[in-house]
Design a protein that fits this description.
This is HECT domain-containing protein. The protein contains 29 helices and 12 strands. The protein has about 800 residues and is an alpha+beta fold. Strand 4 and strand 5 (about 85-90) form a beta hairpin. Helix 1 packs across helix 4 (about 155-170), helix 11 (about 360-370) packs across helix 12 and helix 11 (about 360-370) crosses helix 15. The longest helix has 23 residues, at about 1-25.
Length: about 800
């Protein structure tokens, strides 16, 4: 089955890319569609049809927009002339006009303009530009009905299948070399990426990067042609260097970052093809029983364990990081972070995925022990690899904490510490138990290695898409897995560069007149909703929202104030005290100390914090505040976070760690929720850990064909129990419910009784009672389905605190 899937994936990808490339070159299959400019009052209807196409790809001009102040203005696309089957809707500023793919060959566009009064009052016609787009007819893109499967290939299907195979089968699992990694498939994807105005490019680009991340899976007789990637890298760097402003050069568009990382992947793969592809020695793990020279295995049957031979002599030379071209630094950084990130995900006894590149390991040994990298012997290098493979995430986290303390004591940055002088004292080992059994040589090598990794990262960080959208083997994903290894100094350099690149000249220049009495009266009256609050945070928002956020990126004045503050009915000149006092009051409006109500209830204490008054204050977004007024204030909280970071005001935003991780886009789970809602997580764990009485098998569910009294099946009994619970019946106090419960298998009945009749709704403490799945209120949680229930509850609780999509 797996071989058939792989063969089908390769064939479909090749056919689909050829069909796509051919259709983009057809005469008459590219049309320009546009409305009146500026938009006229009323409704304008447009039609585009491309005979023979199976799909239409719509890309918008950068000037497209509708008035933001008029939510009725929009551009809608329909698949039928009666305008009942909407395909897409676009409105607002230019960035909201994202391209889309429609699986039809005819589209009807409806451009709804402003009313006459709004059009007459508008002074800027660019705000009412309207629609201008290109519509390209395509074949081989997607299937809209089952008969399409026989007529043409589907690039969408090929992308999905290849993504599944690459992300699920590599690099942990065994895959035959040349099964999925072929020069023809890679060439087909590169040709597709070079096709203008084609859809699915982000998905294909991510696939190319993922395939190149594991070059050992290419057959030795079918090495891919990587020459095209060099020109792609040069073109992307040229675009980056030609960016207009410093901010654009520091924060490249995500598409440019993806192109650069793909080129870096090819650069790293080219280096692999220059070495022997198969070698019988692997020193990446001491867990496999490797001796001084490493373990032996058959790489032809398992390329996932491939590792090049140990380098020696001049091959151990590593480049000067400071003078490395950024693209080369990105390629080298990714190869170094791959084993570091995989080790962070593994237990101490697990084999590592790959090993630290020999030149960097030799350089770490030399920096820690003295001498030149080229003089590091094979025995010392192999020993260093084995030692590195035994480092766990807990050890690294304690090492970083210890190094930070040593740097503070020496009044240096962490990278400035002398590796050869580092020594763990007995007191250090008692404070950092994970390091207690490590000798100084191992600690010094690890620090030297992490310092090299951070130096490489700092050289290329602006080229990295930190979201990890390119897949688990991308540099962004690797960084997320190894974020604990990134020094604060490395991050500060990026922040400082960003502050400098986005700085504007001059001071803010405006004074804010605030009303303390109004804020106090609103607080006393309990007016804390975003629509009614008059606290100082809301008053400052009302003043500053009239200015673009960029106005807050200037200089502080002579009194170290970003803006001056005055209060109604109070005399005096702000010499800095009123400004800083206002910042403190604004934070207390959001995160009130014990005994004080919030000035505006955008945030609430986490359940764990609310249950323990002595606990450190931790807040999470109030899930009840979702309207436009609340959204505007939440955005202003982000503005003030930026102000605090830019000017080092150290404003206390007392958010729970899980909220910070959600804001950063990190992957979160039950362990993160436990810190904020310990009671619910404890209950969920008791559901997970429940064991049937007398050691019966808890996996036996109601679908086993068991029948209760009267011949009722277990499934029917479960439905009856759920229906009665929905109607308000209580276990142990309702004869009909007890009778239905008796129809369940014994283990299921014991589970339902133990947890009070859980259904697939968020009914645990603090829940909103909403169904976790469609029809969840009528679905009983049984031992066989409890794992799904736990996962859904965790996702629902975390989703309440997650920021809305941009």
């Amino acid at each position: 089955m797996s071989r058939l899937l792989i063969a089908d994936c390769a064939a479909t990808m090749g056919e689909a890319t050829r069909a796509m490339t051919a259709s983009t070159g057809r005469s008459g299959w590219l049309r320009l569609v546009e409305s009146s400019h500026p938009m006229r009052p009323g409704v304008e209807k447009l039609k585009v049809a491309i005979e023979g196409a199976s799909a239409l790809f719509v890309a918008f001009n950068e000037r497209c927009r509708t008035p933001v102040a008029d939510p009725a203005c929009s551009v809608m696309f329909f698949a039928d002339e009666q305008c009942t089957r909407m395909v897409a809707r676009r409105q607002g500023p230019p960035h909201a006009f994202r391209p889309f793919l429609a699986p039809v060959n005819t589209l009807y566009a409806v451009v709804r303009g402003p009313d006459a009064a709004t059009a007459a009052s508008s002074t800027d016609s660019r705000e009412r530009y309207g629609l201008r787009c290109t519509v390209r007819g395509l074949r081989g893109v997607s299937w809209s009905a089952e008969p399409d499967i026989r007529r043409e290939p589907s690039l969408e299907w090929a992308c999905w299948l290849l993504t599944y195979l690459v992300r699920e089968a590599l690099p942990e699992a065994t895959l035959r070399a040349g099964a999925l990694h072929t020069g023809d498939m890679l060439g087909a994807m590169v040709r597709f990426l070079r096709t203008p105005d084609a859809p699915f490019k982000p998905a294909v680009l991510a696939l190319v990067s993922s395939v190149l991340a594991c070059p050992q899976y290419f057959s030795a007789s079918d090495a891919p042609d990587l020459t095209a990637f060099a020109s792609i890298g040069r073109s992307a760097l040229a675009l980056l260097s030609s960016a207009a402003g410093a901010a654009e050069r520091l924060f490249p568009p995500i598409q440019l970052q993806h192109a650069l990382e793909m080129a870096a992947s090819a650069h790293a793969a080219r280096a692999v093809f220059a070495t022997p592809l198969f070698c019988p020695v692997d020193v990446s793990s001491s867990a496999a029983g490797a001796g001084a020279a490493g373990g032996v295995w058959n790489p032809l049957s398992d390329p996932s364990t491939w590792s090049p031979p140990l380098a020696a002599g001049k091959d151990l030379a590593s480049p000067d990081v400071a003078s490395l071209p950024e693209l080369e630094a990105l390629a080298l950084a990714r190869e170094l972070f791959k084993p570091l990130a995989s080790a962070a995900r593994c237990a101490a006894s697990s084999p590592r995925l790959g090993r630290i590149p020999d030149p960097w390991m030799a350089r770490a040994v030399a920096e820690a022990e003295g001498g030149e990298p080229s003089a590091v012997s094979a025995a010392r290098l192999a020993a260093a690899h084995r030692s590195s493979a035994e480092w766990t995430r807990a050890m690294d986290e304690e090492l970083i904490a210890w190094l930070s303390g040593a740097a503070r004591a020496a009044e240096k940055s962490v990278p400035a510490l002398d590796a050869k002088a580092l020594t763990l004292t007995a007191r250090d080992k008692s404070s950092f138990p994970a390091l207690a059994f490590e000798d100084d040589a191992s600690v010094r090598r690890r620090f030297a290695l992490l310092r090299l990794a951070n130096a490489l990262l700092a050289r290329c960080l602006r080229l990295v898409d930190a979201t990890g959208a390119l897949g688990p083997a991308s540099m962004g994903a690797l960084l997320r897995g190894a974020a604990h290894l990134v020094f604060a100094h490395t991050k500060e350099k990026v922040v400082n560069a960003a502050v400098k690149a986005t700085k504007r000249s001059g001071t803010f220049g405006s004074a804010l007149l605030l009303d303390h009495d109004e804020a106090t009266a609103a607080l006393a009256a309990g007016r804390c909703r975003p629509e009614t609050s008059r606290c100082l945070f809301v008053q400052v928002y009302e003043h500053l929202s009239r200015h673009p956020a960029s106005d807050l990126r200037g200089d502080l004045d002579g009194s170290e104030c970003l803006f001056r503050v005055a209060f109604k009915g109070q005399e005096g000149i702000d010499a800095g005290g009123l400004f800083r006092g206002t910042l403190t009051d604004m934070c207390e409006d959001l995160f009130p100390p014990p005994g004080r109500e919030a000035g505006v209830d955008l945030f609430v204490r986490t359940p764990s914090c609310a249950a323990d008054p002595a606990a450190e204050p931790e807040f999470a977004p109030n899930p009840a505040r979702t309207n436009e007024a609340a959204s505007a204030l939440f955005r202003f909280v982000g503005v003030m976070m930026g102000v605090s970071l830019r000017f080092r005001f150290c404003m206390p935003f007392e958010l729970a760690p899980v909220v910070w991780r959600l804001v950063a886009g990190d992957t979160v789970g039950m362990e993160d929720l436990a810190g904020a809602d310990g009671a619910v997580v404890a209950l969920l764990r008791s559901v997970e850990d429940w064991m049937p009485p007398a050691g019966r098998d808890a996996s036996r569910g109601a679908g086993d064909g068991a029948a209760g009294g009267g011949g009722v099946s277990g499934a029917e009994a479960a439905e009856a129990v759920a229906a009665l619970l929905l109607d308000g019946a209580v276990l142990g106090d309702d004869e009909a419910l007890d009778a239905a419960l008796a129809g369940l298998p014994a283990d299921d009945a014991a589970f339902v009784t133990r947890f009070g009749g859980l259904r697939f709704v968020d009914s645990l403490p603090g829940g909103d009672g909403a169904p976790l799945v469609q029809g969840g209120e009528r679905r009983l949680v049984l031992p066989a389905s409890r794992a799904a229930f736990v996962t859904l509850v965790v996702q629902a609780r975390l989703r309440r605190w997650a920021p809305p999509p941009a």
